[in-house]
Design goal:
The protein is about 55% helix and about 15% strand. By secondary structure, it is of the alpha+beta class. It has one domain. InterPro entries: DUF3347 (IPR021782).
Length: about 170
Amino acid sequence: MKKINNGFVVMLMLTISFVSAQDKIKLNHDHSKMEMKQTPIEFSNENVANAYEHYEHVKNDLVGSNPGDAQKGAEMLNEALGKVEGAGAALSASQKIAATDNLKVQRKAFSELSTKMEDILRGKITAGKLYKDFCPMALNGGAYWLSSIEDIRNPYYGAQMLSCGKVAEVIQ
């Protein structure tokens, strides 16, 4: 009986350790659930607002280094960008992200996507603000991204260098 109790205790401890480790992994990699100072943003066009929402999804998945989720988010972004006038270049960049689960390739395409999304979003914000962030170390020369939070959450390095970067511009 004592052996059974000891075996049960060992199994219970292993289970608790495993669950605890899984929770730690989730905490370290699911940055989309972190509490941040987010400013509600409103756009003059519903299709543009929808596209930005999916852009944020892709960005947050890259921050969390989740290429499969970024791929799914990019597929939704592709559909949303298809409804936005003049979004061909952004759609092309988004399609590159959707076409691969290679994180390095996705992050390079995300830089291009961010530039093209800025072109789409600029002048269409009716309330709130966007932060144009910059990481000087990304992609061997620096890269920008857009965010609805002031805190830096780097999509080019994820947890490796989560807060590397600075707000380069506030777009209103």
